[in-house]
Design goal:
With 395 residues, this protein is mostly helical. It has helices at residues 8-12, 18-37, 41-48, 53-80, 83-99, 107-135, 141-170, 172-193, 215-241, 247-264, 268-294, 298-312, 315-325, 332-360, 363-382.
Length: 395
């Protein structure tokens, strides 16, 4: 973001509009549907389907692998057919992916439906993230990202609590059905809030499916999320082992911390810049994961979760804006698709790698390894992948 005051015309352009609010509610419903699954799917795979830690890691994080493959393809679709197209079809695929667990009788079937969820996630996220940037004034993109991501984490906070309660009171099938219903709600909200085709939209496929200037922030994001993927995959089983039956409260603690910080400090990533923001993120993320590893008691779980949340709060907004600034509006979905591959690969690869660590040792050791990934991320961010002060807009 450039310094100084924006031109008068930009100052007059509002960020908070009815369509932006509906877009955020669409994201809230959708991410609640994803959040429902996190505290239920690991136990479902382990107890109902007979899978071990590696199977759990693949089932939870496998959607990231299919999403990573799909991102470069859905980005150009969002630039040519419009953001609404991606959001609608993304919700349909995710809804079927969650409902598919009703018929899952083996780990293989559960993983296949999780891969379908990944395809939908790729489309939905690229579409709605690009739409949020389309609606935001240029000088408030970082702020818009922070506020939009409040809905993301709001959904990921409420979803696990609701999912755990549904599973305890009505069984896992109620969780899968509720997830499908929430996706239907997101479809309706997206239909009335999403913008049409972007200005200057081009037909046909681009010469390259990768937006190369977005790879630097993508690398920094992916490295910063590897440890977090282990938290998503194994915190439920970890707290079960130490005798705490309310994993939903842990997920909610993480999300509430992120939401509160992003509301109170929405403009902090713009002021600090991606270099200092990512440095703080890696330090706090690694520290939080190591607290989880070395303090395997209920207080340690919550302290580690809060510190990890402090680390994860601003990493995405700072690096996301860097990726968006590298592309014109008619290539924005492509840039976001390239950037968000990092999230999918981190969740998929991190879940598998740390699942192997957990299978060979323990969940605490997996959290320790996740903290080591944060150290590696910090070294890379300060050496081979230092962000540039300002990203040039690609023409």
């Amino acid at each position: 973001m450039t310094g100084g005051s924006p031109p008068a015309g930009r100052q007059a352009q509002p960020l908070f509009t009815a369509r932006f609010a509906l877009l955020c509610l669409c994201g809230l419903a959708y991410f609640m549907s994803l959040g429902l699954v996190y505290p239920v799917l690991p136990g479902f795979v382990e107890n109902e389907l007979g899978g071990g830690p590696v199977a759990v890691g693949l089932a939870v994080g496998g959607f990231g692998l299919s999403a990573a493959v799909a991102r470069p393809l859905v980005g150009p679709l969002g630039d040519s057919k419009g953001r609404r197209y991606l959001v609608m079809w993304g919700c349909v695929l995710v809804g079927f992916g969650i409902l598919g667990n009703l018929w899952a009788t083996t780990v293989t079937v559960a993983v296949l439906f999780r891969l379908l969820t990944g395809l939908g996630e790729a489309a939905f996220f690229v579409g709605i993230a690009a739409a949020a940037q389309d609606m935001a004034p240029e000088h408030r993109r970082g702020e818009a990202t922070s506020y939009f991501s409040v809905m993301v984490y709001g959904g990921l906070a409420a979803g696990p609590v609701l999912g755990e309660q549904l599973a305890d009171s009505a069984g896992a099938d109620a969780v899968w059905i509720t997830g499908g219903v929430l996706c239907a709600v997101a479809i309706m909200l997206g239909a009335v809030s999403m913008p049409g085709r972007p200005e200057g939209a081009r037909s046909g496929w681009p010469n390259s499916f990768i937006h190369w200037p977005a790879l630097r922030p993508a690398l920094l994001l992916g490295l910063g999320l590897l440890g977090y993927s282990g938290f998503l995959a194994f915190i439920k089983l970890h707290v079960d082992d130490i005798g705490f039956p309310h994993a939903g409260a842990v997920f909610a603690t993480f999300a509430v911390c992120v939401i509160g910080l992003r509301i109170l400090l929405a403009r902090l990533p713009d002021r600090l810049g991606p270099q200092r923001t990512s440095t703080l993120s890696y330090v706090f993320s690694g520290s939080g994961l190591w607290i989880l590893a070395f303090w395997p008691q209920i207080p340690g779980v919550f302290v580690g979760t809060v510190v990890l949340a402090m680390g994860q709060t601003f990493l995405f907004p700072a690096l996301f804006v860097m990726a968006v600034q590298s592309a014109p509006i008619n290539r924005r979905s492509q840039a976001i698709g390239t950037f968000s591959i990092a999230f999918d690969l981190a969740v998929g690869v991190g879940g598998l790698v740390l699942g192997g660590v957990a299978a060979a040792s323990s969940y605490s050791t997996a959290f320790f390894a996740g903290g080591c990934f944060s150290v590696i991320a910090l070294i890379v961010s300060r050496t081979v992948a230092r962000p540039q002060p300002n990203a040039a807009i690609a023409s």
